[in-house]
Each structure stands twice: as C-alpha cells, then as structure tokens.
Amino acid sequence: MIEINAPLLAHAYCPPIALINGFSMALLVWQDDLNTGIEVIDHQHRRIVEMINHLHVAQTSLQRLAVAEVIDELIDYTLSHFAFEEELMEQAGYPFSLAHKRVHLVFGKRVGEYRLRFQAGEDVTDELRNMLSRWLFNHIRGDDQAYAPQVIAHLNQFSRSHQHGTWLGRTLQRIFR
Predict the structure, then answer these.
(1) What pTM did the predictor assign?
(2) Is 139 labeled as ligand-binding?
(3) Which of 18, 35, 78, 94 could in theory staple to 89 by disulfide, Cβ–Cβ 3.0 to 4.6 A?
C-alpha cells in the first residue's frame, strides 16, 4: 500500500514522501514546466516518470525479479519513446536532431550498463533511479523543449494542409493543441 505524506521538497523534482511497506521514499511528481506542448510526447514523458516511481516501489518489495521487470520495461519504453521523438524531429527538419539523437544514444548505452550491472548481481536501483530522474528532467527542460516549437509548427502546418474534417486532421488537432 502506498500512502503519500505531506509534500516535502527534498529536491525540486521529488517532492512527496511516500511510505511503502515501511520504507520512506521520495516519489517523482510531474511538474507543469516539463510540458513540451506536444501532448503525445508529454504523455510518454509522464509514463517514464511513473515507471521510475515503479522502480522504487519494486525495490521495496525486495524481489529482484520485480525490479528486473521494471528495469527492462523502463528501458524498452524509453528507447521506443526516443525513436518516436527522433522521427518527429526529423520530419520537422529540426536542425539539431542528429545531436539530440546522439544524446539519446549515449543515454541508452548508459542505462544498458546499469542493466548489465544489475544482472551481474549488483544493487544499482537507487543509483539508476537517481540518474534517471535527474537526466530525464534536465533533458526535457533543455533538449526536448528546444525542439518543441519547431515540431509543433510542423505538425500544425501538416494539420492545416490536410482537411480538418478527416480523422487524421481532427486527431492531430487534439494531440498538438
């Protein structure tokens, strides 16, 4: 059972303290300044934050299998998110998409190393969670918010160039308001 106590600002990105199975821990909370304005991307980012919190909860279960499953799901989901994000940047002609892709590549290698260390028996959960939360929030506030205006403009142009009465046009308008 998870109970949230009064929000304590231990870090700008980890305000609430939760009590889970007797363990006290800070859970990540989505903040409005993390929104890019691209609803589908923001939804994916929120999902990654949820998974980082699930990693912490799984750790308190003291079951390595539960932690391993969350690590695998988190890494797989994040890498598929990166591919989606990179495609959006490319389609929009974002001039720094290659550099952004390299940042994703370096990050992918880094989390892959954490997975290998975990599989070798090392308890990397706290270290991984701390790295993920710092990296993700800094990445969104910097790199992702930098590409957002160009991607939004491209998507709006695409939406306008297609009939607004079509399913695709209506869907794009809902997603990229």
Answers:
(1) 0.77
(2) yes
(3) 94
